[in-house]
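Hey, quick one: can you model this chain's 3D structure?
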Amino acid sequence: MSIIPATSKAYLKMLTEDCLPFWEKHSLDRKNGGYFTCLERDGSVYDTDKFMWLQGRQVWTFSMLFNRLGKNRKWLDIASHGYRFIRKHGRAPDGNFFFSLDRTGKPLIQPYNIFSDCFACMAMSQYSLASGDATAKAMSYDIYKRILSRRNNPKGKWTKAYPGTRPLKGFALPMILSNLSLELDWMLDDKEIDSTLDACVSEVMEVFYKKDRGIIFEHVNPDGSLSDSFEGRTINPGHGIEAMWFLMDIAARRKDPNLAEKCSDIALNILKFGWDKKHGGIFYFLDAQGHPPQQLEWDQKLWWVHLETLISLIKGYRMTGRKELLNNFMKLHEYSWKHFHDPKFGEWFGYLNRRGEVLLPLKGGKWKGCFHLPRALFIIQKELKLLGM
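Sure thing. Here's the predicted structure for all 389 residues.
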């Protein structure tokens, strides 16, 4: 099968003629509101539970595209459809967001996961920009302040860790906060956003990134030292590389070319560490010391890992001009389009085995929704267009 060249037009076409039509056709729950995310290869619904972080992600996606790609009324209507469901059903009495609901909006899983709140916050911000809805803007700011207040204990009473024995810090929250804060740039004053971004950059680059290894760890001790444990040795290449394009955006905001160069170095180092030299593609999890990873799915190839890496590589190339980044982008473009795209029904498969064969034919589920693929396609087509490609 011939691979479509990596051009801005190709990525835009994949977004507007392949990816978005799939979700527009299959995901809307016309009866109860919100979106179905558990979709078979052909788009048929196989489970009707609604996961709040995926509801927020889809509101964000269609609002963002309305704001940044074109004032397509259909996109705003789809965003409104999810926004109304989230407002009506998504929040627990304490103000935090449930993890999941049934089809009608009744809570299934308590608000243990702060990322439900993070993506609700992003959704409200972009939807407010798109619609002019003042309530959405106020909700976004309120959620943001709540997230900041929970940063040191994101799971609160829902944590499973026994207090005091191994109090590890996680990389995921400072990583997502760096992106979330930029998403709210339009509604935050400079002092407020700069203080959060400074803290995020410091955490990512001085605590979780280990210069002697050239990679980012998922968990560290409270003092920043490494923990010789399953969690402490865990490397998630996709997370580390995704964070690098978040920080590249911060570098652009600050006009800081040194930060962009450093992010590019780290992205390349993690890619080298995480690349499967035998079968190609990027591993999902690895153990920093080469021990057996605790995650049994460690050698799977996931859609979002490859998409976020494509963003970091092409964004880094545009910002630094380093050919090594472009060469790796082209290599990964070929792998990703060949293995993940479904030419028969559209959209991308999410889960491949180590050999690059489709492991699960689903297009959406509990963890995969309308977010990583459309976001990546939009950003990459924009980056390629800026490069004249």
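One thing worth noting: The chain is about 55% helix and 10% strand.
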